Structure to design on (257 residues):
């Protein structure tokens, strides 16, 4: 079975219960494979990043395998506005957040409610210099474990969505993203838009942020914020100390577009 998210944002949980931890979110228009069913719950695998979790079946719409395959093969189209509305001929008015998928609008067989969208559409690969412009759209968004929107986002959700809006694919978790790209030997080799990863005392990658110019970094910690970065890690002037220990800097985008 296959499905698509037909609501603004739905929680992706670690188990089949409303009390279970939210590990990520599924945004409007994202499609997925349904791997298992338990009562009213589906265990799904998102097509975009293969991330898995449980969603309430009442918050999804089942689609055919051919529709799933067609959506998977089509160029991704995303909402480029902080928040915009999907409308329908039945007077439905549905707010959707930045980064929601609009690819399905090109498919009449999926578009059962005759959805219309008049906001900003984003598609294709953008120049690396646009990464920070996109990142600033999330500035001051509150930190939310598992979040992927300007109304609540975690560190790896932030980097994934910023890159996605520019046409580049990152995996969901910081530890997964740290396996992508080319490692740099020194912070001086980094460019704006590169990713910096940070570990804990056990050596596990637990945080990620986006390098800016002049030794600054934008990242989600309490909120999406801008701090200093040096060879030790992230320095937060508000608490007058380093808050995250630098592990590695990765260049994900090697070719200028």
């Amino acid at each position: 079975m296959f499905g698509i998210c037909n609501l603004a944002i739905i929680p992706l949980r670690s188990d089949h219960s409303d009390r279970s931890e939210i590990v990520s979110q599924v945004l409007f228009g994202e499609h997925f494979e349904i791997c298992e069913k338990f009562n009213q719950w589906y265990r799904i695998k998102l097509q975009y990043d293969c991330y898995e979790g449980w969603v309430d079946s009442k918050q999804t719409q089942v689609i055919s395998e051919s529709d799933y395959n067609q959506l998977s093969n089509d160029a991704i189209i995303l909402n480029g506005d902080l928040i915009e509305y999907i409308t329908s001929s039945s007077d439905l008015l549905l707010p959707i957040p930045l980064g929601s998928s609009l690819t399905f609008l090109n498919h009449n067989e999926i578009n059962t409610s005759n959805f219309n969208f008049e906001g900003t559409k984003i598609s294709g690969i953008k120049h690396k210099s646009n990464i920070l412009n996109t990142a600033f759209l999330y500035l001051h968004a509150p930190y939310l474990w598992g979040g992927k929107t300007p109304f609540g986002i975690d560190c790896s959700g932030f980097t994934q969505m910023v890159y996605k809006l520019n046409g580049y694919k990152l995996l969901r978790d910081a530890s997964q993203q740290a396996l992508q790209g080319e490692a740099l030997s020194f912070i001086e080799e980094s460019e704006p838009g590169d990713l910096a990863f940070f570990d804990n005392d056990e050596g596990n990658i637990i945080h990620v942020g986006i390098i800016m110019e002049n030794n600054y970094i934008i990242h989600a910690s309490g909120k999406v914020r801008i701090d200093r970065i040096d060879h030790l890690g992230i320095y937060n002037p508000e608490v007058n100390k380093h808050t995250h220990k630098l592990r590695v800097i990765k260049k994900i985008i090697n070719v200028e577009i």
